[in-house]
Design brief:
A hairpin with a 2-residue loop joins strand 2 (50-57) and strand 3. The protein is of the alpha+beta class. The strands form two sheets. Strands 4-1-2-3-6-5 form a six-stranded mixed beta sheet, with no helix packed on it. A five-stranded mixed beta barrel has the order 7-8-9-11-10. Helices cover 18% and strands 42% of the residues. It has two domains: 26-115, Beta Barrel (OB fold (Dihydrolipoamide Acetyltransferase, E2P)), CATH 2.40.50; 146-235, Beta Barrel (OB fold (Dihydrolipoamide Acetyltransferase, E2P)).
Length: 237
Amino acid sequence: MQKVFLSVFVLFLMLAVGCAKKEQSQEEIDALKAGFHKVEALEVIQVSSYTYLRVSENGSEYWLAGPKMDAKKGEFYYYEKGMEMKGFKSTELDKTFDSILFVNEISDKLPTAVIKGTPPMGNTPQKPAIEKTEVSVEKYPGGISIAELFASSAKYAGKEVKIRGKVTKVNNGIMGKNWLHIQDGTENKGDFDLTVTTAAEFNVGDVIAFSGKIAIDKDFGYGYSYKVLLEDAVAIK
């Protein structure tokens, strides 16, 4: 009797597993074939602008980082492409990741837009919103203000400029550079924040005069898209 019960129980498990596999929708199958990834969140870490996920995909575990989201351990998520960073150090976590993928978007919903032929998820940059800080920084002698730069960005494209501002946000070690946001209290049509890339390290609250080359409409992919960017900037002593 016990053997019969065991056999029935095993058969029931096999049928249950088989049914579970059949529950995968055609949309999900098509999305995975199109290059999307489905992962299970094993660990979730939240910081000011990003969500870090340790995930499992087909038996492999790795780390993802994307725009801040409400993620939960044990839930399944989808993403398309990622940019791998080796030896990435998060200053907020004081943690170094041997390898981590930075992605445009992590979603708990199927990317059905891809299946239907409309733009795929992740095409629109998902940079965190930047808040305006109440600052008043005097323009560097012979330099320009943030408002002047945005008002005539085409004029300054490819040229060296000098600009002074207060550091309001810092992300170090992204794509081999340190990324800063500076503001000087000026604004042009809603543009008040300038992103700066540099090899040097600075802290939030520092007031620095920078010299660097202006790039416009710069798109690195993976959410790093900028209307105006001050590249490879150095501090003016």
